[in-house]
């Protein structure tokens, strides 16, 4: 129509970054950059600390699995809770709780009392906090931007996380090499202040919450099961997440035992993976509406990247293959997330994204344990081959599924 014609070219010109035109989103975006970087800094430090304490890949897998157990057991109910509570207040509480967990971990490490049992306990507590926090953060984004900018906001939200995968491990590597792992936990605790301050000043465009009935989770499952645009990416992510997204278990051992490096090598590998992930998320932001062939291509490319890493003879080749893997892996993640948000109605979006968090992060406990066993039995290269096979199977399954038009009239024009 004539009155809307001028706005459309402007949206196209701004492309991936158009969501930054919203002041609430800009504030939230800035806070997330600092907080997410601290999170991945701590994750990198925990991986190296546990490996130094135990010299066991299986123990490392169990420690990382501990944080995902609460999401595995209770994750889907986090979306129903987020739908009942004001999202801004909920996020203020969860970010403060994360800061306390990081501060406690720093205190234990500084006093020389950091043990595997203590790290597991703190990870479990943080996992409980993540149950409402993860879907709340996903749903909160849609309350900060106009509907037309949602795809851009989802992409940029992915860029925040994947950019943090570059900044966090790089800073962790520098700290580990110079002063050890302990300061990493203090830096993470402080980083949460950035997002807390941002949330105090953010005023969402909408309330950011909707009432959920008693059967909130059941209704979301029924809703997703009846729409291939929802259950297909969820199914693909469950398979890929279980066997392929266990870099925190594989990379420390790959750096230490296979490539005969140290903390700096581990940080370098993680950083190259993260640089690729940022590039992948930015590329997806240029896609107006994700299509099934894009998911197929991204999953297949992810598998190829893991296979190339599995045969890498040295650090240089491993860095190059992990760069490719990062582009494909996080293109896949961002495509899945964007597909789910664009194809779910606002009434169900929080609960659908809770299902997404469940299959993305909830598979971590099982996947980390399985990968730890595979690494212990056959080495990190074997684990990479298993992940590559899972990605290729997911791509093959998706390639054979025909996705019909979305059953909701509002989404009937979205391309397949």
UniProtKB/TrEMBL annotation:
<dbReference type="InterPro" id="IPR036259">
    <property type="entry name" value="MFS_trans_sf"/>
</dbReference>
<feature type="transmembrane region" description="Helical">
    <location>
        <begin position="382"/>
        <end position="399"/>
    </location>
</feature>
<dbReference type="InterPro" id="IPR020846">
    <property type="entry name" value="MFS_dom"/>
</dbReference>
<keyword id="KW-0472">Membrane</keyword>
<keyword id="KW-1003">Cell membrane</keyword>
<keyword id="KW-0813">Transport</keyword>
<keyword id="KW-0812">Transmembrane</keyword>
<feature type="transmembrane region" description="Helical">
    <location>
        <begin position="322"/>
        <end position="342"/>
    </location>
</feature>
<feature type="transmembrane region" description="Helical">
    <location>
        <begin position="230"/>
        <end position="254"/>
    </location>
</feature>
<dbReference type="Pfam" id="PF05977">
    <property type="entry name" value="MFS_3"/>
</dbReference>
<keyword id="KW-1133">Transmembrane helix</keyword>
<feature type="transmembrane region" description="Helical">
    <location>
        <begin position="354"/>
        <end position="376"/>
    </location>
</feature>
<feature type="transmembrane region" description="Helical">
    <location>
        <begin position="57"/>
        <end position="78"/>
    </location>
</feature>
<feature type="domain" description="Major facilitator superfamily (MFS) profile">
    <location>
        <begin position="23"/>
        <end position="406"/>
    </location>
</feature>
<feature type="transmembrane region" description="Helical">
    <location>
        <begin position="266"/>
        <end position="287"/>
    </location>
</feature>
<feature type="transmembrane region" description="Helical">
    <location>
        <begin position="185"/>
        <end position="202"/>
    </location>
</feature>
<protein>
    <submittedName>
        <fullName>MFS transporter</fullName>
    </submittedName>
</protein>
<dbReference type="GO" id="GO:0022857">
    <property type="term" value="F:transmembrane transporter activity"/>
</dbReference>
<dbReference type="InterPro" id="IPR010290">
    <property type="entry name" value="TM_effector"/>
</dbReference>
<feature type="transmembrane region" description="Helical">
    <location>
        <begin position="294"/>
        <end position="316"/>
    </location>
</feature>
<dbReference type="GO" id="GO:0005886">
    <property type="term" value="C:plasma membrane"/>
</dbReference>
């Amino acid at each position: 129509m004539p009155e809307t014609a001028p706005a459309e070219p402007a949206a196209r010109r701004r492309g991936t970054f158009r969501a930054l035109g919203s002041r609430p989103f800009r504030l939230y975006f800035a806070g997330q950059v600092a907080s997410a970087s601290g999170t991945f800094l701590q994750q990198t430090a925990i991986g190296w600390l546990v490996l130094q304490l135990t010299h066991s890949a299986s123990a490392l897998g169990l420690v990382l699995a501990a944080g995902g157990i609460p999401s595995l057991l209770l994750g889907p109910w986090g979306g129903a809770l987020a739908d009942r509570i004001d999202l801004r207040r909920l996020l203020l509480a969860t970010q403060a709780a994360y800061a306390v967990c990081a501060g406690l971990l720093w205190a234990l490490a500084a006093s020389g009392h950091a043990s595997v049992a203590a790290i597991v306990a703190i990870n479990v507590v943080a996992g409980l906090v993540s149950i409402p926090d993860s879907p709340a953060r996903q749903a909160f984004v849609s309350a900060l931007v106009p509907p037309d900018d949602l795809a851009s906001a989802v992409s940029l939200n992915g860029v925040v996380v994947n950019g943090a995968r570059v900044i966090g491990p790089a800073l962790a590597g520098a700290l580990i090499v110079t002063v050890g792992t302990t300061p990493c936990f203090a830096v993470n605790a402080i980083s949460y202040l950035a997002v807390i301050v941002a949330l105090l000043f953010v005023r969402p465009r909408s309330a950011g919450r909707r009432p959920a009935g008693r059967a909130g989770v059941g209704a979301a499952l029924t809703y997703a099961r009846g729409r291939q645009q929802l259950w297909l990416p969820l199914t693909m992510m469950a398979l890929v997440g279980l066997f392929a997204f266990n870099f925190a278990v594989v990379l420390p051992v790959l750096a230490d035992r296979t490539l005969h490096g140290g903390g700096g090598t581990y940080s370098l590998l993680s950083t190259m993976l993260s640089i690729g992930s940022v590039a992948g998320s930015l590329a997806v932001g240029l896609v107006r509406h994700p299509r099934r062939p894009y998911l197929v291509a991204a999953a297949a490319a992810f598998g190829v990247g893991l296979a190339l890493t599995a045969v890498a003879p040295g650090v240089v080749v491993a860095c190059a293959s992990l760069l490719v893997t990062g582009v494909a892996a996080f293109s896949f993640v961002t495509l899945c997330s964007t597909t789910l948000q664009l194809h779910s109605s606002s009434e169900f979006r929080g609960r659908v994204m809770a299902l997404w968090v469940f299959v993305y992060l909830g598979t971590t406990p099982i996947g980390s344990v399985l990968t730890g066993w595979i690494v212990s039995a056959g080495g990190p290269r074997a684990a990479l081959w298993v992940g590559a096979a899972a990605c290729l199977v997911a791509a093959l399954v998706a390639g054979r599924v025909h996705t019909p038009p979305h059953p909701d009239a509002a989404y009937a024009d979205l391309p397949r």
